[in-house]
Amino acid sequence: MLSEGLFYDILRQALWVAVITSVPILSVALVTGLTVGLFQALTSIQEMTLTFVPKLVAIVAVFWISMGFMTQTLGTFFTTTLIPLISGGH
Question: What sections of the protein cross the membrane (predicted)?
Fold first, then answer.
């Protein structure tokens, strides 16, 4: 039986892994959005695709670059934490 403390510890670790894996994409989306917003404010261009396309391209590029890191982080969490718990060796 899974104890309450162990459950919350695993939940905390899972949330931390989610934060770590999402930081590269979210930070690039933020920086790109701020840059495009500043550019739009300076030039008075209010085109919706101007905000969407660069952000999408930046997010896809960073996702492609950091995919190995994300896969390794999630795989490590799964093999070191969840598989031993599932097999009963906690």
Answer: 15-39, 51-70
50, 38 in Cβ contact below 8 A? Answer: no
The closest alpha carbon to 80, from 20, 24, 31, 13, belongs to 13
* pLDDT tens string 2-21: 789 989 999 999 999 999 99
DSSP for 43-90, please give it: HT---HHHHHHHHHHHHHHHHHHHHHHHHHHHHHHIIIIIHHHHHT--
Token pair belonging to 65: 């670059």
- Phi, psi (degrees; rounded to nearest 5) at 73: -65, -45
Q: List the end-to-end C-alpha distance of the chain, in Å, as a whole number.
A: 10
The reported pTM is 0.79
